[in-house]
Each structure stands twice: as structure tokens, then as C-alpha cells.
């Protein structure tokens, strides 16, 4: 049976397409109000998918920092509750996510919140909204917000957005873990020797940080492996 070019492209997209950050608008995203280059069509795809080689954080868009296309897309107060949302046509029935921040222009990323299981929401096709708390002592000024997703197929995706952090409320509690002592976000499934579990479980983060949101329990949680390559 022969497929038309259009049909083949649709099937290819459904097989490999995933999810991407919608809000805040990501670097390279079609909804980023400051983007003047063509939008990146691979933001919802896992790293190194579909003939493209991805190197570096944020799908390679950190080169936009400090340029007109890398301006902040939102302003968040330190210690405030904020949200992020996802979009796409393939949630792969869940997975585990982390969100975090870089205060050094994308050299390192430290965890804000770990979502262990059911991220994205496996039973939702349209509502992919999540809440988290901005670390109360995060440095003020422009930072890079990052969302990382591991599905159950040993695939990694990472989108980023530039955010301005302002001073928090006077009654914001002192964090139990200072920002500069929070763990780095997990990097796995990118050829670095660290692998996430495949098919039957969702990721349990070895260094989740102080803020953890548990999933719905439909899948068991399992640590990435081997420990020596995964930072624990």
C-alpha cells in the first residue's frame, strides 16, 4: 500500500511528536513575542530526533540570551506561586518532569520542583497546567526558566524561557534549602551514560530538591541508572 506524502508526514508526526512548553513562551517558540527568526519546529520533539542533532541546553537556543529575541517573557516575584503549561499532540501517557532555573546564563540549572509521574497529565488532552513555587531566594533580575521531560521511552526534551525575577513579599518564608544549594536538574538519555527506566515505570529523581509533586500512582517510580553516571 502506498501512502501520499501528506499522509506519511501526518503519521510521522503522530509517531514522534511530543509536548513542548507553551507558557511561559519558550526561546525559539512560535508564540514568543520577541522571536523574529523562523520558529523552531522541533521544540516538541525529543533531543536528537528525526535527523536533527541537538547539543546544549534549551534545544540550542541559549545563543538568544542578551539579544532582542531573548528578552524576558514574564515577570515573577521570588517566592511566588507560578504556573507553566504544555502543548502538543503526543503526551506519551505521562512521564516525569522537572522545572528549574539558571541564574548564570544557562551554565547550570537548579531544581525548583520535581513532578514524579503523570507529567504531562496522562488523562488530559487539552488541560496541561501545572503550578510550582519560585525559590524565595533566587537571584533577582533575568534568569532562564527550564522545563525538562522524561517519558517512558528513554527520551529527553528541554524547553526554556527568559523570566525577570523581582523582590518577593516581606512575609515570604525563608527557604529550607538555599537556591545555591538546590540540586542540579537531572540530565539523562542524552548520551552521557545516564538512562531513565523504559516502558513500565516513570522516573523517580535521585536528587529531587525540596519541592516534589507526586503523580497519580498509575505507574511505579524508578531511579535512573547507573548511579555513578546519574549523580547519586
TrEMBL record:
Keywords: Signal. Gene3D superfamilies: 2.70.50.70. Residues 1-17 form the signal peptide. It comes from the Eukaryota. This is Lytic polysaccharide monooxygenase.
Amino acid at each position: 500500500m502506498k501512502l501520499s506524502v501528506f499522509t506519511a508526514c501526518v503519521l510521522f508526526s503522530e509517531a514522534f511528536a511530543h509536548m513542548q512548553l507553551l507558557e511561559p513562551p519558550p526561546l525559539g517558540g512560535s508564540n514568543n513575542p520577541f522571536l523574529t527568526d523562523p520558529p523552531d519546529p522541533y521544540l516538541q520533539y525529543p533531543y536528537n530526533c528525526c535527523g536533527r542533532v541537538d547539543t546544549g541546553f534549551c534545544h540550542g537556543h541559549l545563543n538568544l540570551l542578551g539579544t532582542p529575541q531573548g528578552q524576558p517573557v514574564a515577570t515573577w516575584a521570588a517566592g511566588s506561586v507560578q504556573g507553566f503549561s504544555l502543548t502538543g499532540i503526543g503526551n506519551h501517557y505521562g512521564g516525569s518532569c522537572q522545572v528549574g532555573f539558571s541564574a548564570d546564563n544557562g551554565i547550570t540549572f537548579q531544581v525548583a520542583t520535581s513532578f514524579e509521574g503523570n507529567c504531562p497529565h496522562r488523562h488530559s488532552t487539552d488541560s496541561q497546567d501545572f503550578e510550582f513555587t519560585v525559590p524565595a531566594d533566587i537571584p533577582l533580575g533575568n534568569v532562564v526558566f527550564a522545563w525538562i521531560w522524561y517519558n517512558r521511552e528513554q527520551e529527553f526534551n528541554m524547553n526554556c524561557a527568559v523570566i525577570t525575577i523581582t523582590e518577593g513579599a516581606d512575609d515570604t518564608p525563608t527557604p529550607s534549602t538555599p537556591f545555591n544549594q538546590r540540586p542540579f536538574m537531572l540530565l539523562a538519555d542524552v548520551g552521557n551514560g545516564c538512562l531513565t527506566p523504559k516502558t513500565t515505570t516513570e522516573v523517580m529523581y535521585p536528587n529531587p530538591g525540596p519541592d516534589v509533586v507526586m503523580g497519580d500512582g498509575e505507574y511505579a517510580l524508578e531511579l535512573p541508572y547507573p548511579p555513578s553516571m546519574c549523580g547519586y
